[in-house]
């Protein structure tokens, strides 16, 4: 990928990009799971301190915030990067592959951390903004709700912001292309755990049992109607039965069967509607076969809703500094979920995407963050911070 010439900022970040690529690979080689980002957060905090940031550690677990103030401006911006890795056995064979068995940076959070650090260093050197910049390094994006933990630990009271931004690399989108989506951009995720309880017995005497396998099979098919028959056709939703477990032998009818269902939606009304339908179908199906159903429904991450004004601002920054050819015109909604959604429930802001090129998909054991996108992504943060903090400059 070519580095687009755009004066001092581009040249400077390009000059140091080798350093941050090396840092990214170091992070890749020492991945840490959610809330265990001890080495990573220590490294992040150490760098920020050495660059003159006021550093606060242990926010929401291993979270770190680095604060840099400059000039007389009273605007405040937060940029968030996630730091955690996944419980995946890496299969890339890279020279800098994970040295921790069973743990892997398979979502590019190593890249997100290195990008924000590169931008943070540049901003500390140039100090060409007027206001307050908070670099937010978050633990536990992968299912642990690290964003929520930081918020509960007073993130936005202790480090007030007028807007907060984050980014994710995106495989399948050309390297370095920017994607913006106003409104609901990423899905909510919930889990339904359904236990169908029957009465076990001999496989040759089904009449003396209540067979939970038959009730479960029927329920799996009925669940396919939730999206097709209950949800408004103009809405989007996913109901996937991911696991079904029950029985140990062909000639034994088990007492119970457990199903696990993942649910994705793009608005809260559909989210509630699907929950109600799944519970009703499970209970009534079980009842129809003489069994009973127990449903637990742990909530995952909410719909990620990008704020229109901040998203347009972020898009304009990309257009101004990188050109229209670098901005995707038809970036589509994503059925994956993301806990930055919690931050966007608290503060205006936007979550954007940077193409990772033709790489393996996120969460694949073959995935790797594309180092070629690091300099421009860092330059994007620098320009966003600079433009945001000068757009209503009180100095
Ligand atoms: Zn991720």
Tell me roughly what share of residues is in helical segments: 25-40%
Number of domains: 2
Helix-strand sequence: HHEEEHEHHEEEEEHEEEHEEHHEH
Q: How would you sum up the global shape? A: elongated
Compute the number of helices. Answer: 10
Give me the CATH fold name of the largest domain: Aminopeptidase
Report the sheet with the most strands, covering strand number, pairing sense and barrel closure: 7 strands, mixed
Radius of gyration equals: 24 Å
Known CATH architecture of the largest domain: 3-Layer(aba) Sandwich
Q: Which CATH first-tier class of the largest domain would you pick?
A: Alpha Beta
CATH homologous superfamily title of the largest domain: Zn peptidases
Beta strands, count: 15
Name the ligand types: zinc ion
**In percent, how much strand structure appears in the residues?**
15-25%
Arrangement of strands in the largest sheet: 1-2-4-3-5-15-6
Q: Name the poorly predicted regions.
A: 1-7
């Amino acid at each position: 990928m070519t580095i687009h010439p755009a004066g001092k900022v581009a040249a400077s970040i390009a000059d140091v990009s080798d350093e941050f690529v090396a840092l990214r690979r170091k992070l890749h080689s020492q991945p840490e799971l959610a809330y265990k980002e001890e080495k990573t957060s220590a490294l992040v905090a150490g760098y920020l301190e050495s660059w003159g940031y006021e550093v606060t550690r242990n926010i929401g677990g291993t979270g770190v915030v680095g604060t840099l103030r400059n000039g007389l401006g009273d605007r405040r911006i937060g940029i968030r990067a996630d730091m955690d890795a996944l419980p995946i056995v890496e299969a890339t064979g890279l020279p800098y592959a994970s040295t921790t068995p069973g743990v892997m940076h398979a979502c590019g959070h190593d890249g997100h951390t290195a990008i924000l650090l590169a931008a943070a260093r540049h901003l500390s050197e140039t100090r060409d903004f007027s206001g307050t910049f908070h670099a937010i390094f978050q633990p536990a994006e992968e299912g642990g709700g690290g964003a929520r933990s930081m918020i509960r630990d007073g993130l936005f009271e202790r480090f007030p912001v007028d807007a907060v931004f984050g980014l994710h690399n995106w495989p399948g989108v050309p390297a370095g292309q920017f994607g913006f989506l106003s409104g609901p951009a990423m899905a909510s995720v919930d889990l339904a755990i359904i236990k169908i309880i029957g009465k076990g017995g001999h496989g040759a005497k089904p009449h003396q049992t209540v067979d939970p396998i038959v009730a479960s099979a029927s329920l799996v098919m009925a669940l396919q109607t939730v999206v097709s028959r209950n949800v408004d056709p103009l809405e989007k939703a996913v109901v996937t039965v991911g696991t079904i477990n029950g029985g140990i032998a062909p000639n034994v009818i088990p007492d119970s069967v457990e199903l696990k269902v993942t649910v994705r939606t793009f608005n809260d009304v559909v989210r509630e509607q699907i929950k109600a339908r799944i519970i009703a179908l499970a209970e009534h199906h079980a009842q129809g076969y003489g069994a009973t159903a127990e449903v637990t429904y742990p909530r995952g991450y909410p719909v990620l809703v990008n704020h229109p004004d901040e998203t347009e601002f972020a898009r304009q920054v990309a257009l101004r500094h990188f050109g229209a050819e670098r901005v995707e015109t038809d970036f589509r909604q994503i059925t994956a979920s993301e806990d930055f959604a919690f931050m966007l429930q608290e503060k205006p802001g936007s979550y954007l995407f940077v193409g990772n090129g033709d790489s393996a998909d996120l969460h694949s054991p073959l995935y790797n963050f594309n180092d070629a996108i690091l300099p421009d992504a860092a330059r994007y943060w620098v320009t966003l911070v600079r433009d945001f903090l000068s757009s209503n400059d009180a100095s």
